[in-house]
Design goal:
By secondary structure, the chain is of the alpha+beta class. About 60% of the residues lie in helices and about 10% in strands. Among the domains are: about 90 residues, Alpha-Beta Plaits; about 100 residues, 2-Layer Sandwich (Alpha-Beta Plaits), CATH 3.30.70.2750; about 80 residues, no CATH class. Strands 1, 2, 3, 10, 11 and 12 form a six-stranded antiparallel sheet that branches.
């Protein structure tokens, strides 16, 4: 296993007799170790063979996928009860359905059978439900219109058009504007009634021959015409009938929704399984478009890892009856070569951090083996509180045994968080952080129990901050030089010896030479001999010459950039001070609240305010009123027993809430700044990224499985 670089890849060309191409493609798909690409990337092969066309069966897959999607869309649109917090944190695992190997025709026949039986029933219920919803929406809209005309005392059957007249009912805020406009008609009828909720209800009528002009006048007068011409009886009578129809529609709608939910619970998995199987066939057929063709053979271009070449070759020969051949070559275009990372199992979750920046290029160092321990150490030093570490460990375990069981990304993140939490716990013990540092006046968690565990470094007292700063800068110098070492390895691998001299040797001359000159001559920290100063001046001059040869006019900015990267590691101290300082502040505030005192009069006021809120809750059923009123009643009641009790409770709220907020914010800050030290200060010396991930041609299964012994 080579953890320095990605896996060695091979550029492969597979030539198979046309009669065996389907069997070979199916076998490669099941093997899942080959990334199939288009022959267009290989000009030599493309010039010798013709291009393939779309597989004739691909249209069948598309057609049946649309049919299955119609049913699945119905299931997806069903509103079910929202999952609780437990279900969200610990979602149930999908029980995969074991499936036998079948061909496409058998699968399509199975889909047809399912659609002809269950599918038709689902579509019928869904269609009926849609009709009820449309009718219900229409009835509710009509009910709103009737409510607006509730003040009218007339038979609504007279509204609308007859052989001689036309009548309209509407709402307006300016009835006199309408009255003036209607006066233009020779014969018209207008009734105006004020509505209880504001505005006016109007009835406007005219001869049938003036219908168009009446409608135009109503529009220009901003009258909102109500669609009531299909109703009978007075508005109150019509409203009663509408309510009866609405209740019937609601009952029918609920019954149909219940039927759909039952159908979903019984058959949803069956359709998901069929769709997944169909997608696997579709993916298998889509790759044919990238093949090369001759009269009797098909040509497949692809990639596989070096250790899988023999296995892939064996699969090709076996499933082509020795009528196939595999040719493998070293990659020529390294920018197009896919990348497959190769790390030990404990480091694989940390590949997530590498990919968050960008996967390495094929000829580039994979930094995962370095950033994994470095990230964990930086995080622990920045947060540095044992109790906060345990909180992070608890959160990581919830993620791992919850969503992490079914989502790989969440599982990897939870393992990174677990390592960071353990690191925080260890460094918290070393720094004496147990919900903040311990002080005689303001005790931390262990101090409250009379315990004084030994600590190696107090972040806030004495020389602690200076020591942590020195540790941070030493780590920074070592880490930057580790980046230069990786750059050296990378340059040697690429046989770029000029960069070895200009990028690596230059800095390794400047660092010791500059340190001796600055610490001795400029700051007077050390007293070196003349020979040492002469040697330091010499290597510094050579380093500067090499730096100028590489950076030219930007040499000064290269020097300040290096210094900035070095000093940037002081953020380890800054985050550590912030965590401990805010934690101590929370402890101080909790003590101040606990030491406060208040008379019984104020306790009575608090209890009285709580009683008022409870009365408001009885009137409004507002849960916020209930919560606030209950809390104030409890605080006021405890104050009558002993005035210190309420403040003890408040101090606990301040203590717990403050530390939870501090732990959350500082953990986020530690995560971000630990990543920044990797992506900016460290990667800048050797890493660019931008590689293309290796994506093997394999079936994606979420709902189905192939059992041992299945074909």
């Amino acid at each position: 296993m080579n953890i320095l670089f990605p896996k060695r890849m091979k550029d492969i060309t597979i030539i198979v007799h046309e009669t065996h191409i389907d069997d070979v493609v199916e076998a490669l798909h099941s093997l899942g170790e080959v990334q199939i690409s288009s022959i267009d990337r290989d000009g030599d092969v493309k010039n010798r063979v013709g291009s393939s066309t779309v597989h004739q069966r691909l249209s069948d897959c598309t057609e049946y996928e649309m049919k299955l999607s119609t049913v699945q869309d119905i299931f997806d649109g069903i509103k079910e009860e929202e999952p609780g917090i437990k279900e969200m944190l610990f979602p149930p695992e999908v029980e995969r359905v074991p499936r036998d190997e079948i061909d496409l025709d058998e699968l399509l026949e199975e889909i047809d059978e399912k659609l002809d039986t269950v599918g038709e029933e689902i579509l019928a219920v869904s269609s009926s439900l849609n009709k009820r919803e449309e009718k219900l929406s229409e009835m509710l809209s009509l009910k709103r219109d009737v409510h607006q005309a509730i003040e009218l005392d007339m038979d609504l059957s007279n509204i609308g058009e007859s052989a001689y007249t036309v009548y309209r009912v509407g709402r307006t805020s300016e009835p006199y504007k309408l009255k003036k406009s209607l006066s233009e008609l020779k014969t018209s009828h207008l009734v105006i009634k004020p509505a209880k909720d504001g505005g006016y209800v109007v009835i406007a009528g005219a001869y049938i021959r003036d219908r168009k002009k009446l409608d135009m006048i109503l529009r220009e007068a901003d009258v909102d015409v109500l669609d009531l011409d299909k109703l009978r009886g007075t508005p109150k009578q019509a409203l009663k009938k509408l309510d009866e129809k609405i209740n019937v529609l609601k009952e029918e709608k609920e019954g149909l929704e219940s039927s759909l939910i039952d159908l979903k619970q019984k058959h949803s998995m069956e359709f998901l399984v069929l769709k997944e199987e169909l997608n696997i066939f579709r993916d298998r057929l889509e790759v044919y478009q990238g093949f090369g063709r001759t009269d009797t053979t098909s040509v497949i271009k692809g990639w596989t890892t070096e250790d899988m070449v023999e296995t892939v070759e064996g699969v090709v020969k076996k499933h082509s009856d020795d009528c196939g051949v595999l040719i493998h070559e070293e990659p020529e275009d390294l920018d197009e070569t896919p990348v497959d990372l190769e790390n030990p199992k404990p480091l694989r979750p940390f590949e997530l951090l590498t990919r968050m920046f960008a996967p390495p290029r094929y000829d580039e160092v994979d930094p995962t083996f370095v950033i994994a321990p470095a990230f964990v150490i930086f995080f622990g030093l920045m947060l540095g509180d044992a109790v906060y570490g345990l909180l992070i460990v608890a959160v990581s375990l919830v993620l791992y045994y919850g969503i992490g069981r079914i989502e790989k990304g969440t599982r990897d993140f939870s393992l990174i968080l677990l390592a960071a939490g353990i690191s925080t716990f260890v460094f918290g013990i070393l720094q004496g952080g147990y919900l903040g540092p311990n002080r005689d006046e303001y005790l931390n968690l262990l101090g409250r129990f009379g315990l004084e565990p030994p600590l190696l470094l107090d972040t806030l007292e004495g020389d602690g901050p200076l020591v942590l700063l020195i540790i941070s800068l030493i780590i920074g110098l070592a880490y930057i030089n580790l980046g230069l070492i990786l750059s050296l390895v990378q340059n040697i691998r690429r046989k770029n010896y000029r960069n070895v001299l200009l990028e690596n040797v230059s800095w390794w001359l400047l660092q010791p030479g500059g340190f001796i000159l600055l610490s001795g001559k400029l700051f007077g920290w050390y007293d070196f001999s003349g020979t040492v100063y002469l040697f330091a001046a010499l290597i510094t001059a050579v380093g500067l010459i090499l730096l100028v040869a590489r950076a030219r006019g930007l040499s000064f900015f290269e020097l300040t950039g290096f210094l900035g990267d070095f000093l940037s590691f002081a953020r380890i101290l800054a985050l550590g001070l912030a965590t401990a300082g805010i934690a101590l502040t929370v402890n101080v505030l909790a003590y101040l609240v606990a030491d406060a005192s208040m008379g019984t009069t104020m306790m009575a006021v608090i209890a009285g305010l709580g009683a008022v809120l409870m009365v408001r809750w009885l009137m409004t059923k507002d849960t916020m009123m209930l919560g606030g009123g209950s809390a104030l009643l409890i605080i006021g009641g405890l104050g009558f027993i002993d005035p210190m009790y309420p403040f003890f409770i408040l101090s606990l709220v301040v203590l717990v809430g403050g530390h939870l907020i501090n732990a959350s914010l500082q953990a986020l800050g530690s995560f971000v700044h630990s990543l920044r030290l990797q992506y900016v200060e460290f990667f800048g010396y050797f890493y660019e990224g931008g590689g293309k991930e290796f994506k093997p041609f394999r079936p994606e299964r979420k709902y189905t499985s192939r059992e041992e012994g299945m074909k």
